[in-house]
Amino acid sequence: MEDRSFHPLDYTSVLRRRKWWFVAPLALSIAVGAALAVVLPREYTSEAEIGIADPTLSPELLRGVQSLDAEERQRAISQQLLSRSVLERVVREENLSPGKPVEQTAAALRSKVEEHIVVPQPIGRMGQGREGADSFRLGYVDATPDRAQRITNRLATVFVEENSKTKTQQAQNTSEVLAQQLKASQERLAKLQEQLRLKKQANVGRLPDQMNANVSMVNGMRQQYESLSLQFRTEQDRLSMLEGQLEAIKQGSGGAMTSSGQAALLGAQTRINDLERQLRQYQANGYTDQHPDIIATKEELAVARRELTSVRQQTPGANTADLAAADPGYRQKINERDAARLRVNTLQRQMSQALAQIGSYQSRVDAAPLVEQELSSLVQDEALERKRYEDLSSQYQKAQVAEDVTRKQGGERFVILNPASLPTRPTSPDLLRLMAIAIGLGFMLGAAAVIGREFLDRSVHDARGLQNEFEVPVLGEIPRIHAL
Of 41, 131, 222, 430, which residue is least crowded by CB atoms under 10 Å? Predict the structure, then answer.
């Protein structure tokens, strides 16, 4: 008998011999899968959609008021939604697990909710003209569909309310803090202004902004002084002339004074008058007694007075006052001389007053830079505080508008777009998937059992096996004869 080559039908014969080894694991796997499908608890998932509502107020009114940006949306979804206050409020309002502590129930609720938050797009990416997520889905899993729906709706409602409350409280706190800062800045500004006012009041007339006026006053007083000096010199000349005329009248009344003696006497008196006028001019210009011109003028004046005394002694008939007093012209000249002396004294006082005023205003001009240096720090602090006060005032007004808008819910806010619906089919367990896994596992176990049993079986079932086992040729083979 010749050797037969291997044929695929040999596998069929093996499967036919070992069919129960294949069917039994498959049936057992299917039975276990069916039992798990019946025994495993049903879980129902309910989802609600929460979105960003557009502002209900005019954009002009909302200008400068902060809207929900990407970071705020992310923070609200990732932190506030799963915050302890929101979850514990849901636990209390839904009376979940009354026998357990609220914190423990809230932690379990957090783990369930955290797995069922679905954001359609990454937070912060552009979407429908805005940055960040425009909406997201919030889900909750429970054994009963109605409780899953109820808790999901409760969670969405509490989140929206808490978010609105948080924004309102944040806007209110911002307004209060800015109001306190604004009040403190106003007090500091008033204190600096009072210090600046007292400082200016103590240095009135020497302030930097009064320097131009002081310079103008100095120039005006100098012009006035020059005018008074001119009048003073004129009056002095007239007084000298009148005194000379009076002296001439006295000499003429005596009849003993010669014309040459009269001229010498008049010249000496005129020289004395000129020197005295020059000396007063130097003193008016601020020269001290140690100035060379003052010293020289005084020496010349002393010499001139000695010469006048000498001339009077050498001139006969110089003492003729009694004779001249009876002359009406002499008396008129006396009156004119007295009036001239009065005007000279008045002009001299006015010149002294003008010099004093020039010195006063000049001292103000000189002191202005020092006063400016003293006031500069106060002025700078006052300007900085005023700028800070204006900035805080602007921020406070914006914060008040934002608080008003938040209270009236006129800006962007979270709203429930689609409430949670009642789930009709359980999301767990997945029956199709469970049965598919059971069947696949049954096929693998059955195949492994058939292969293992065939490998361990040492009996001979055909001529090939006999020939391989005993290494002897097979002369013939009687096929299996099935009874009729």
Answer: 41
The string of DSSP letters for 3-59 reads: PPPP-THHHHHHHHHTHHHHHHHHHHHHHHHHHHHHHSPPBEEEEEEEEEEPP-S-H
Which amino acid type is present at position 36?
L
Distance CA 10, CA 282 (A): 150
Tokens in use for 468?
């391989």
Strand order in the sheet with 117-118: 117-118, 135-142, 44-53, 413-418
Tokens of 45: 């998932």
Residue with tokens 């079932």: 461
Question: What is the SS3 assignment for 101?
Answer: coil
Q: How far apart are alpha carbons 95 and 81 in whole angstroms?
A: 19
| Per-position DSSP letters for 269-321, written without gaps between them | HHHHHHHHHHHHHHHHTT--TTSHHHHHHHHHHHHHHHHHHHHHHHSTT---H
Task: Give the separation between CA 39 and CA 50, rounded to whole angstroms.
Answer: 35
pTM strictly above 0.70: no
In angstroms, the CA 391 to CA 95 distance is 50
Greatest mean pLDDT range, 52-61, 96-105, 173-182, 442-451: 173-182
Name the residue among 92, 74, 51, 54 with its Cα closest to residue 419: 51
The CA–CA distances, whole Å, from 10 to 5, 181, 212, 461, 467 equal 11, 95, 125, 11, 16
From CA 149, how far away is CA 155, in angstroms rounded? 10
Amino acid at 327: D
Contacting residues for 448 by C-beta, under 8 A, at least 6 apart? 25
